[in-house]
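$ run holo --ligand "beta-D-glucopyranose" --emit tokens
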Amino acid sequence: MQYGYFDDKAREYVITRPDTPLPWINYLGNEGFFSLISHTGGGYSFYKDAKLRRITRFRYNNVPADEGGRLFYLCDGDTVWSPAFRPAMTPLDSYRCRHGLGYTVFEGKKNGLRASLTVTVPMHCDMEVQKLALTNESSEEKTLTVYGGVEWCLWNAVDDQTNFQRNWNIGEVEIEGSTVYHKTEYRERRDHYAFYSVNAPIAGFDTDRDAFLGQFRGWKEPLAVEQRTSFGSIASGWAPAALLRLAVKLAPGETRTFLFRLGYAENPEDRKFTALNVINKEKAHRMLASFGTEEQFDAAMEELRAYWDSLLSRFTVQSSEEKLDRMVNIWNQYQCMVTFNMSRSASYYESGTGRGMGFRDSCQDLLGFVHLIPERARQRILDIASIQFADGSTYHQYQPLTRRGNADIGSGFNDDPLWLVACTCAYVRETGDFTILDEPTPFNNEAGTEVPLLEHLRRSIGFTVSHTGPHGLPLIGRADWNDCLNLNCFSHEPGESFQTCSNFESGKAESVFIAGMFVKYGKEYADLCERIGLRNEADTVRERAVNMEAAVLAHGWDGEWFRRAYDAFERPVGSNLNEEGKIFIEPQGFCVMAGIGGAEYGRRALVSTEKLLGNGFGIELLWPCYTEYHDYLGEISSYPPGYKENGSVFCHNNPWITLAYCTVKDGNAAFDLYTRNAPAYIEDKSEIHRTEPYCYSQTIAGRSARTYGEAKNSWLTGTAAWSFVAVSQGILGIRPSFDGLTVDPCLPDSIRECRITRLFRGTRYEITVRRGAEKGLFVNGAPVPGCTVPLTDAPVCMVQAVI
Ligand code: BGC
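-- output --
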């Protein structure tokens, strides 16, 4: 069943009813100011850091869920309604929510009044702008009372929800004309304030939430709205808000438009005030003036559209598969941008108060983003490398505002260092910019410790090589990619975090997955070394990769698939010898992608993978699921069977299997797996899948779960980047390489031909892939050997791949 439809021409998902199984959200903003917005107008805004600089309040785990957000009420006679359905929740005569790229539009209609509310964060601007257009479609004049509002968060989102003994005393606002300024803590150490304003004279305001709501009421039916009034309340402590009231008359057929603007501004320390504790509002005035008219708003929407036109034109496909094209050309790339911006910090599942930018997460996100804006990817790589330690290990994450490593989230994940190699190699292949390798980059952000970025990669490789266990395989540390496979934790303390508890440090638990990574990324690092003249180093690392491959074949091959690990007692994990958890997905993906044992081992591993782990939504993480807790396995066995790492379809690593199929040249299997969880392909199962049909989720409950097929944790998942890599580089086969653009499709039989446009190092490659007897690659009509189009300075290059 569906709750809406894709409008590919407009690049929108159109939701046609408010009762979607879960809030279906969108992301606004690209640089500093970000907003999350649900299909009923819920969500919140922040500046750069969802924890430390939260602008509007969000109530987690609230009932009903997703209350608050954009607070619009239209009072028309006896009826009060909201253009986004919420908060008033009055049934509408018609409702649509159109989530587009960087904007969301709500269209509501009730009793002859039409409202269209367009919400966006314009480019280069620290404001959310909300354009409300009201049209009187009746034959009578309408006298309306209109409210627009937000509830402020007291900046630090954790403190805001916990430290009430202080918080209920510190809230402060200022009012000037049609603008409410939020200035809690501005009198002391903060140099920033927020504001909410409308571009018309207001009839009244409230800034004290509770005065506006009245006793025993929520956002559905505030007292002020019921009485069609405002109380002029000035917040002093408690919960500051900005609730603006307009008196609007509309003649029949008339439309009036209002711009509501939610902004954030900073002042230099010596220019904070114009009088005792009065904000210097110059910046806000300038910002409001830049979005005071409809023309300015429309121009910003146009700029946003042009921005996405240009970004998405860098990779497009036209095939006989509408859903494939939709995912590749629009939604998958859009989600890659969102995961690049957010890492795993702020979604409806990631609270924005816990995790900041993950080391491995952000490195992987880059793989799906680097072709879009390579310059931003460059800076991100340097930021990430700066939290690495001198021995090659690293913090697991950092806060975006401070860019400092965050020890609270834990460290000691032994796969982390290699992801830096993965993303840097991808960046250089994409751009040809070898200068990044020379960039002075500190360890642990300490001034004076800077070494060229290349040295960071070298330490990453060195860390893996120098941390091996009894079988010559890499030690797993706290965990590898699978955060929940904790072979050294042995936790018995209820509630203790598996990510930070003290490690037993067996010095024995090993990861076959990291071994696979090392073989793959070790070779990539060696290729990189060779390109910059480090021949000996390239040879040494290649030799290490060969040794590692031998260790995997000797100790990591179980007979029909790759083992997952060895535990702290040197017992295999992910082996037929185990009762449960006999086979895991991760090493099948990475060892096959790395070419360990060649296509022969690869095919056998993949047959076992599909046979034992396959379900209708993809490949489950492990089988059989663990039915009880094992301290020597850790968090993975803490989840009920079929959920999360204990045997759900963990979407993030399904594309590894798709790529593994491409490695062994099985295009039918690769595409079949791709379609099993690509959102557009399962849109018609929305009542089962439940999360948004236009973005990937982290996990889909497996066969052993009670709610098989139900997805959770949408948006912020490495699935976005890896799915894009799988479809663009594996199935469509367009791979940037050091020496040119590789065109090596691995299509299913059902796709007879396709056209691809790829912008690569300044050249637009127009690629046609078709079936034919005379196989090979033709560049501008002439055959070229192999499958790589050599680099060219030409602005356009015509390529034909006959497969
Ligand atoms: C984390 C990833 C991790 C994955 C598997 C995600 O929640 O963000 O870093 O690799 O879970 O455990």
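-- notes --
The CA atoms of residues 526 and 740 lie 18 Å apart.
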